[in-house]
Amino acid sequence: MSRRSRSRDFGLTPREEAALRRLSPPWRIQRFLDDLSYDVAGVGCRSPRRVLREHTVQCMDGALFGAAALRLQGHRPLILDLEGEQDTDHVLAVFRQHGCWGAIARSNYSGLRFREPVFRTIRDLVLSYVESYFNLRREKTLRRYSRPVSLALFDRRGWMTAEEDLWYVAEYLVGIRHYRLLSPRVQASLATVDRRMFGAGLVGREGQPARASAASRPRETGRLRNRGR
Asked: What is the pTM of this model?
């Protein structure tokens, strides 16, 4: 089967397919996502088709878009979930190149985006986000991470081209096993974020920071319905 025939199975139009293929190498996918409007309210979880049309994105649909673009460039469409304590989750599209892992992500925090494929393991990749994963009380909050999930699981539901919101993918991520990243002793010894690091993390942030109270805490249901990550 030809490459073009395989991509037709995803339901993309030739124009959509060409747009995704042009975003190569992976850092071009990140630049594309960074140029889109950020959905601060997190009211939508858009398919890659809708992202191309609406030019709006948040953390979850940013990862979905990244995985779709990577797929058309020969990578598996993989995403993984980062889970914070007293904070919201964050989702990455991950890829492997030259035996190492990298990531693409859209966030309202500048340090939670692209990672070059230089990490030998998924855990090493996730650890690179610890310093930049903080809440508005300047607490470092990253605690757990999931295994990479292939979005091919949802091909029958047409996740790459659907018009409806794809919150079912987020709910799937919430329900799978997550792995502890740091020991309790290490967690207890973490410093608060330096004021300069805090300011750098908020560079380019869209919308006003929420009050650093219960509003910044995840709910057990809808944990991935973005609140600013």
From this structure: 0.88
